[in-house]
Predict the 3D structure of the following.
Amino acid sequence: MANAEVMRGDDAMRECIDHCMACHRVCLETLADCLKRGSRLAEPGPLRLLMDCVDICETSARFMLRGSNLHSRTCFACAEVCAACATACEELGDEGLMEACADACRSCEESCRGMSGGVMPQPLNPEAAQRFADLPA
Amino acid sequence: MANAEVMRGDDAMRECIDHCMACHRVCLETLADCLKRGSRLAEPGPLRLLMDCVDICETSARFMLRGSNLHSRTCFACAEVCAACATACEELGDEGLMEACADACRSCEESCRGMSGGVMPQPLNPEAAQRFADLPA
Amino acid sequence: MANAEVMRGDDAMRECIDHCMACHRVCLETLADCLKRGSRLAEPGPLRLLMDCVDICETSARFMLRGSNLHSRTCFACAEVCAACATACEELGDEGLMEACADACRSCEESCRGMSGGVMPQPLNPEAAQRFADLPA
Amino acid sequence: MANAEVMRGDDAMRECIDHCMACHRVCLETLADCLKRGSRLAEPGPLRLLMDCVDICETSARFMLRGSNLHSRTCFACAEVCAACATACEELGDEGLMEACADACRSCEESCRGMSGGVMPQPLNPEAAQRFADLPA
């Protein structure tokens, strides 16, 4: 590690890995909690987002732990999924693990957004723009 | 399924899932083959890219099979990783499973690129631009 | 490949990989279908088993594709989970993808059971001790 | 949580999840370190075992976090893989992360061994009982 700038980058990555693994864990626990509680917590949208979040957090963490130089791409996807999952949890309110899960997703989103520098959604045409407009949060 | 346009979208997704799962499989086999053959095939770069490709192909397929509306993000990441992995395999030449792996990666890249409409790498500053310039292919 | 016996073993493994990947796929599709249909299909038990089945099928396939000599352990776990998932799908009846999912799970169970030959849950005797001693350095 | 016994079981599972996730992480880091160092650390056996360990630790943690009652099967497989991976790391000596990785594998092995103790869910009916009776050893 040659200089302070690289060290800072390394610290940011380590923190991002921590956020991804914490988010991965709380999403799995929230998923289990939703299934147990049933009712409106078991709606398709949030459950699917929780499963999405588990998988992309895991993949994103693996890329960084492996030292892959394409981690910006998986971090970008992870930030996007975490944002949508956090919004879904926030809308479901304060039952069970929802608040803790939303917090973990927001932290992971912010951290992954920082690691994904340079990757941006860029609507290429009206249809794509509409698709983005329809996406959660 | 209401009309021909939606059907076409559905067919494209089904085909993309097939490509992701085929690529996931041949990358795992190529990884095993590289380890057995050793020597220059076992260099860090290609092995790491093969592992990356296995993980993102799996995640990308999961998002589509689950009907997640954020699959464009994982497909974008998958297209990028497949492109880099294909290039690495092509450079390693015709030993073992390298050619078959490169082919599977190229097909998966093209298919995922089509599913990722609207997500584009957009260098925000010189440092990020340089980082992209340094990325494989 | 030296002789017919090895060939047969190789064919059985290839078939088992196919079953694991097919089961992995239909379980993910069934999961999505259950979420869409809601009601009793979205009960915690079956959903959790479907998620379990997706994960262990994937891991079991990876072990075999990588040529890992501990695949008997993951195949054993996979056979057990597939059996439970098949039973859950059969009990939920003929709605949606349930029958197709049960069939895929039964095929995968049988195939993985065959690949898990020497697995013992209680390695407390000389034979088992020897097996551990023989594990890859 | 009704009584102390259940609490103890719950604590053991939480600890086991921690061990699986810590082992998953250090194995990924060790894998990256081996690739960077090259030479004898990049032999097929250890690399394959490290990849195996990453995958089964992840799956094992997921089963427990999801509250799956088949976690004893994945914990059993995890204990076996961790044992083999620890031995491989110990034999490779004190270079890089090998010692830390061996330690994490041993802790995870022990913890998973404890969770796989019964390796039996409650047989609910004669058919299930027969199925268990037919299981290997």
